[in-house]
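Q: Got a minute? One more chain.
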Amino acid sequence: MDFVKELKRVLDENSDKKAAEPMAAYMKNLFPYLGIRNEKRKGILKPIWNEHSAEIKSDYRNIALELWKLPEREFHYCAMEILYKEIKNRYEKEDIGLIEKLLTTHSWWDSVDFLAKHILGNYLLAFPDEIPKVVKRFSDSENMWLNRSVILFQLGYKSKTNEKLLFGECRKHASNKEFFIPKAIGWALREYAKTNPEAVVEFVSKNRLSPLSKREALKNL
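A: Always. Here it is, folded:
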């Protein structure tokens, strides 16, 4: 893949070991970094993307996967940005397999949250009949990040939010003590409160949520 090779070459040339250390430390040293800040990385990506636009448009799924295989986190960010732009309005039902792979590989809040809102969320808007099946499978999974993704995928839905589904997932996972789950519950409720604050206040008052979830849900009310 010419695009992946060229992007890797240029990003490697712009790596900064001194900057990479604190970037990796911020992410609990789960991934190595090249030390390229987002603004600079996007500036590097744009002309290479333009130069290889035909290749990317015809093979963006495989390109995203190839970038995801690379260890440095900057390549994962590039993969998500490419996938978000290229797959829009071109989803296929089988893409749920790709989405699940990305959600469960190199998983941390920065990738999972982007994928949940922008990739999974848009996929389920494109295929609403898939919502019950996908939500049940992800919600019942032992993988915490899949659980988090079904709590968060409606973040951008606003008036299209399925309130019953959202509240059901929040209620189902309310007893989960893993930090990222109650945090997600609070975030999802806080976001929905921008559309229906009364419903969120009532839900929080009538359900046993963690202090973290309650605090996050009602933060702006």
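A: The chain has a mean pLDDT of 98.
Q: Perfect, thanks.
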